[in-house]
Amino acid sequence: MSKLTLDGFFSYCKQIAEHIQLGERMASLSGQGTPKLTSAVGNLYYDSIQPYREDANAQTREFLARVVDVLLDYVQQVNDRNEKILDFKMPEEMQKALDLHLPEEPLPLKQLLEDCKITLKNQVKTGHPHFFNQLSCGLDIISLAGEWLTAAANTNMFTYEIAPVFILMENVVLEKMRSMIGWKSGDSILAPGGSVSNLYAFLAARHHKFPQYKEKGLSSIPGQLVMFTSDQCHYSVKSCASVGGLGTDYCVCVPSDERGRMLPAELERLVRYHKDRGNIPFFVNATSGTTVLGAFDPLMEIADICQKYDMWMHVDAAWGGGLLFSKKYRHPRLTGIERANSVTWNPHKLMGTLLQCSTVHFRHEGILLSCNAMSAEYLFMTDKIYDPRFDTGDKVIQCGRHNDIFKLWLQWRGKGTSGFEQLMDRLMELSEYMVRRIREQSDKFYLLLEPEMVNVSFWYLPRQLRGLPHNRDKEIKLGKVCAKLKGRMMQAGTVMVGYQPDDRRPNFFRNIISSAAVTERDVDFLLAEMDRLGHDIVVD
Ligand code: ABU
């Protein structure tokens, strides 16, 4: 056989192999919509792809491409109203359905792809238009793209030297957010969630008043510190008192009005009470958008009291901060936020940035470094070739910081500031639509209060309870209906809404519209589906 003929033979074999692989791939993509790896790659193990093998570009790409197919299928299902939100299983049943064990020996790539598919299959689709369960709902595609790339970049946000672009992005975004609060300068950081953001505010407030605390500790403070927050605040505020050494007894709950807004007169009375006893009131948390009712504390009046008694004013706008974008809804809700010393604002809530993305802002330039810096020499050397102020890691009590900025920056570029304003207005209008629809069906639904935000609080009335006078006894029964109906919703997998009691009422539903996917017909579907699933519920 001549050399030419051998080459021709090998080329023919290669073509056949490629043809078979292409056929397998096409079949995998068309059949059942379940991406499959070719057998040549599916039977490989982790050490046959990068970074273990330099010459494994093709195998690596094929594996990742099929994972991306799984992702894309998931995104499609999330946006398909005919798909269920979840396929609910009890924990024991879920444990049986999944293979979660960690093997002694490696598993092939085809098994890992199956693991990816089954994981997403059993996940609750929080981006589905019928998911109204949490403050963070939705699946913003541009933010998702940012998150995928963030994972690939896999860097830590503590120094400019390893995250140059992302550090500069943080500066740009955080400066813009501060300007929206109403500040020309200041300090900010992204933190792992609103609770930790609130803790950063608490620590900065104590440091501001008692800078010696950092070195000398609690005994250097000349009295009992006291903090104040409304009885509707997020529980993380109370946890600051515990973590920060005050004790939760010294996180004083200020009564709120019937819509969940702090009563400023009560705040002042309680501040004076503690001052009269020699305690040191130093920190007030005002909430802009409470977790359950979506209430906004009156910031102007609270700011006046903070000024009068020389207390730090923090605004927990983790939930309501997004409304700063809206000319229509910003006032009066957030009027006075510019007078705060610090503000928590979570883009992963109302703005729809993917979890997690939480920011905390300070009116005081340099306070984070002053409060938290430990100047670790192995990381934050001062003789670097660039300005060490770009090493933001020393501003925080954590060391490593996840990159939460790229997805927000990319989303903001995609929407523009005007796009966020439109989103805020749309979410608020949809909530107003829901309130109208509830009122129109007052035989089946009972609105608890006129909402200030996208939290709509209501009871569902099954046939058994319709037409009866509304009293405490009926409310207790309506509370029992919530748990039963929520159970039915989860079993059906068609719709999800949260419920909880509060200090004034038994269980009630709290509906959240914070997903850009939701439309009027989804609100109508929600109410009709609750009635379909719940009309025959009977409670004692
Ligand atoms: N404060 C965290 C969010 C709670 C919720 O989604 O209901």
Automatic annotation (TrEMBL):
<dbReference type="GO" id="GO:0009449">
    <property type="term" value="P:gamma-aminobutyric acid biosynthetic process"/>
</dbReference>
<comment type="subunit">
    <text>Homodimer.</text>
</comment>
<feature type="modified residue" description="N6-(pyridoxal phosphate)lysine">
    <location>
        <position position="349"/>
    </location>
</feature>
<keyword id="KW-0210">Decarboxylase</keyword>
<dbReference type="InterPro" id="IPR015424">
    <property type="entry name" value="PyrdxlP-dep_Trfase"/>
</dbReference>
<keyword id="KW-0456">Lyase</keyword>
<dbReference type="GO" id="GO:0005737">
    <property type="term" value="C:cytoplasm"/>
</dbReference>
<dbReference type="GO" id="GO:0004351">
    <property type="term" value="F:glutamate decarboxylase activity"/>
</dbReference>
<dbReference type="Pfam" id="PF00282">
    <property type="entry name" value="Pyridoxal_deC"/>
</dbReference>
<dbReference type="GO" id="GO:0030170">
    <property type="term" value="F:pyridoxal phosphate binding"/>
</dbReference>
<dbReference type="InterPro" id="IPR002129">
    <property type="entry name" value="PyrdxlP-dep_de-COase"/>
</dbReference>
<keyword id="KW-0663">Pyridoxal phosphate</keyword>
<dbReference type="InterPro" id="IPR021115">
    <property type="entry name" value="Pyridoxal-P_BS"/>
</dbReference>
<dbReference type="InterPro" id="IPR015421">
    <property type="entry name" value="PyrdxlP-dep_Trfase_major"/>
</dbReference>
<comment type="similarity">
    <text>Belongs to the group II decarboxylase family.</text>
</comment>
<protein>
    <recommendedName>
        <fullName>Glutamate decarboxylase</fullName>
    </recommendedName>
</protein>
